[in-house]
Known about the structure:
single chain, 358 residues, 7-stranded mixed sheet
Amino acid sequence: MTGEDEKSASEAGADGGSAADAKGSDAGTESGGITRRRMLLGSGASIATLGGGRALYNTVLGYGQFGMGTNLEEQDIAPLATERLVPSYDESIGGTRIRAVGSGLTAEEAGDEAFLRFGTDPVDAAADLDSRLGLEGRFRELFVDLSAFRAGEYAFEFHDPPAFFDRLGGGDVRPEVVTTVRSNWDRVIDPETVGQFADADPSDPPAVVEGLVSGFRDHATYDVPRYLAGSVEDNVILGAADLRRYFEDDVGFEALLESEETGMFCWELVYRSIEALQAVAADRQSVPVAACHVSDGRHKHAYTGILGAIRVGGELRFPMTFVDYTHTTLYDDVGLTGVLGEGLAAYDDGHRADEIYW
């Protein structure tokens, strides 16, 4: 929700989450005479009212209402999605190191390196090299797709989560180009940890997307104390002291599994969801996906974008969807799931994308 008051989205995208995830070992305990309970009691009803008002503004008043601007369903999202999308690739396939380097692809085996240039070398050359090195078509597919991307010969399309996975399930999926989109959070967490947290096989993205809902509800809460501390910091003492730090918890997956009430902010939920969705290599997933951090500036909110890649009639297409684990967690915390629904799907009029970080 509004956790990004204290950290800009640009910082989040640049450091891959390390700064936002750094938590002191004494977080959430008494420090300098301040505890969560003491802070909440000392803040007074006026601050709670202020926080409640901001929460209403952030969660209920979506875009497209009262002239408050466009939302995801109305936006031209593709330019935002591609603005910071810089494909990169450095993988070993059957003992051959394949890298995307500048204007082409290299294949290195036993000290010998071959280089093919996008837009210059023909696909047949990529197919011949693929066959000679026994790369099972993966090098050729990567060369074809990255050539198309560099030439602007692709299209984005946007769906709600069920339609997104249906679309990927019915197309010629392209795991290699999906791998090029992944960045800071690719395979940084033990897949077994993800499986335990989400009660889902990390190679099955649709199951992970749903499983994270229960995982966050079982092991985390939306961090209202830290939110209210932020309200005091921003609106009462006008930034004179960092009050949020007294409320920070370790929000790594291992720590979450040991807790039932770890306080989390929106971007922390985003980082964990990206880690979970990219815990295994794209070519091992039932439907290969990459995930990203989406920033909604007016709401000071972050949520998760999920992208796949398919070929349809020879055209490269990038289906994309959006999910919001803040809403699924918060609505459950305050008993509003029965009124507001699960809150997972975010491709709606209550969300906007101002910046997208891969």
